[in-house]
Amino acid sequence: MQLESMYQDIILDHYRNPVGKGELVPFDAEVHHVNPTCGDEITLRVRLSQGVIEEVGHIGQGCSISQASASVMVELVTGRNVTAALEIESAFLDLMQSRGRSVPDEEVLEDAVAFAGVSKYPARVKCALLPWMALKDAVLRVRTEEPTTHDKEK
Amino acid sequence: MTSSASTAGLVSPLDAEAIKADFPLLSRTVRDGKPLVYLDSGATSQKPRSVLDAERDFYEHHNAAVHRGAHQLGEEATDAYEAARETIAAFIGARAQDIVFTKNATESLNLIAYALGNASYASTPQEQALALSPGDRIVVTEMEHHANLVPWQELCRRTGAELAWLSVTDDGRLDISDLDAVINERTKVVAFTHQSNVLGTITPVATLVERARAVGALIVLDACQSVPHMPVDVGELGVDLVAFSGHKMLGPTGIGVLWGRASVLAALPPFITGGSMIETVYMDHSTYAAPPQRFEAGTPVAAQAVGLAAACHYLSEVGMSAVAEHEHYLTSLALSALQEIPGVRIIGPAMANDRGGAVSFLVDGVHAHDVGQVLDDRGVEVRVGHHCAWPLMRRFGIAATTRASFHLYNTAEDVHALIDGVQAARKFFGVA
Fold first, then answer.
1. Average pLDDT, stretch B86-90?
2. What ipTM score was computed for the predicted complex, to two decimals?
């Protein structure tokens, strides 16, 4: 019975049909993040245009939670500017650290509210956060490298 | 031979249900009232009441700093600590003076690696003989726990020695086909596990010892997964140093053991320095106590030693041969039942011979984390992940496994709960 509270249908659907799975070309930044406690990994690429996240692609291996979280994230942030995407990231982080005690804002998090159940399981929180940490790292890298990164224009 | 044929007629010499009753924690429930099925003893074991009582008794009646002062409590605490050393030594066929107490096996292994590193700044010819230099070799295996790998990587980095390793076969055995080439004439240290914490594989100690002796290498054995589960006599093993943890063998956390051959311990310089481990101290230099005190700086872990001794008593009363036989029985059951489930693949020896009760497996189409979650939801607690053996995972081209591991308190019903849970996971994720 508890299982269903973690594995909401939205999560299982995204796990089975992930959005953004694959190698993105061209891209502005690539990051590789691992979860050192379990060995799961994600390689994530982003392409930005004038501060807007044009596309995100991810490859790697992970459990249903990390894979579904990556997929939900790609849907959420694609087409948004970096500041708005990082606001969602921050709201998602708050939700995941709430130990099941916060009521997520569906306006902001959309499908990602499905992860509220995961926040009750401390060992799985890192799974859900893995793609978001990778995304944050990637977009900040593009920002700091902004003056020199023009590959996508070519 | 089929896997089921290998379990036919197997019986356990133990009444595991009765043993279970000695472990207070095992009667609790988890996840909304489900009976606990604890299958993670490879990570840490549960404790019998006698161990808890022994620690409590020490704190209630005899607690004082060991090897300091001359008051009555100090004497009693010191006696209890040293009596514990006798008991724990006897448990592995050793002499008390050759047993060093550490924090855990990880510290025991680091003690060896750092002491060998310190030998490079040696003050005696005895110590100098242990020093490593560029061109020297340290040999490990591909199935090591990080605790018996990373300290050696670091020692190589500090001394310029090179690290080499024996690889693992597809069925999870140690590949000794190139033993003579890997353990070459320049090899100064051979460090390996007695039993893999992931694969369950028991390594061919005698074969490795023979080759290591032939080239004059120091032999270090990680016995974390063997001492708690089978009879171990350090004299018979023929190695030089043995490391294991108290908490995996029904004892408390916070105590580990390093056994060393007397001549080896005598030659090793200290690792952690400070109080208790000195002979004389001047403002500009110090001299050090004989082993084991040389390696026990700081206030000794007296209550933990007393608890670990109680654990040794408990295990001895049951009998380590019976413990090993019981776990062999459970392992055989688990291996054969798991392999009957479609899409389940054992990582490690598929047969129960020469292996212990750590059973790692993959479930096709379901990530180990998700298998573990479904099991946990049913009260079955296993370990998922890389089990602190990341290079071994890479060897098999995988990121994680689900691992069930047994101890003397597990029953055939526990194995059945595992099997039912794995089937439920396949169903839940739509691969059944």
1. 98
2. 0.88
